[in-house]
Amino acid sequence: RELLLALASDVETITTVMEEVDRLEGLLLNEGDSVSSKSIELKGSIKKLITAKEFVEALDRLEVEGAPVWGLSSDEREMIVLAREKMNNC
User: Fold this and answer.
1) Taking CA 28 as the corner, what is the angle to CA 27 and CA 34, rounded to the nearest 5 degrees?
2) What is the pLDDT of residues 1-35, one digit of tens each?
3) What was the pLDDT predicted at 3?
4) H-type helices in the chain, by residue range?
5) Phi and psi angles of residue 67, each rounded to the nearest 5 degrees, phi first
6) What are phi and psi of 33, to 5 degrees?
């Protein structure tokens, strides 16, 4: 039963962070290709979110041998794969 609660909280952690990353990436996209203090700040904020200990630990618990754990919805599985890709690219 504890694992189910931990899993739910891990999914919530990943969901919350990924929503914020998506918002920041939208702002970054509006900045265009130019390098500015704003774009550097946005990239730094994204990296900080993706590499935060709580996020990384939750992501690790939601994966087994590099694949999302059983019991996740298809949307949650896609989000876990995307989260890992973003973390690996930071």
Assistant:
1) 135
2) 455 556 899 999 999 999 999 999 999 999 888 88
3) 59
4) 2-31, 37-50, 53-61, 74-88
5) -125, 150
6) -85, -5
